[in-house]
Design brief:
Blueprint lengths: L13 E4 L4 E4 L8 E5 L4 E8 L2 E6 L2 E6 L5
Antiparallel strand pairs: 1-4, 2-3, 4-5, 5-6
């Protein structure tokens, strides 16, 4: 028997696609450190958001991209 409070519900993962070559940044800011540049049509998994920025996972990298360039 396992108490209900010990159960973890898997998070829903949302997949988006970049609409342009997009800078993946360490912080949710245009001045944040550049981690990588994602090519147009890259599939990313959304893990969070802050203002006009979305936190994503792309391959082995995690960082922030401008939300306006995701569909």
């Amino acid at each position: 028997w396992v108490p209900a409070s010990s159960l973890v519900t898997p998070a829903v993962v949302t997949t988006k696609i970049t609409t342009a070559a997009l800078n993946l940044r360490a912080e949710p800011s245009a001045s944040g450190r550049l981690i990588a540049t994602l090519p147009k049509d890259t599939r990313v998994s959304v893990t969070g958001s802050q203002g006009a920025w979305t936190r994503v996972e792309a391959g082995a990298s995690t960082g922030w991209v401008s939300t306006e360039f995701l569909r």
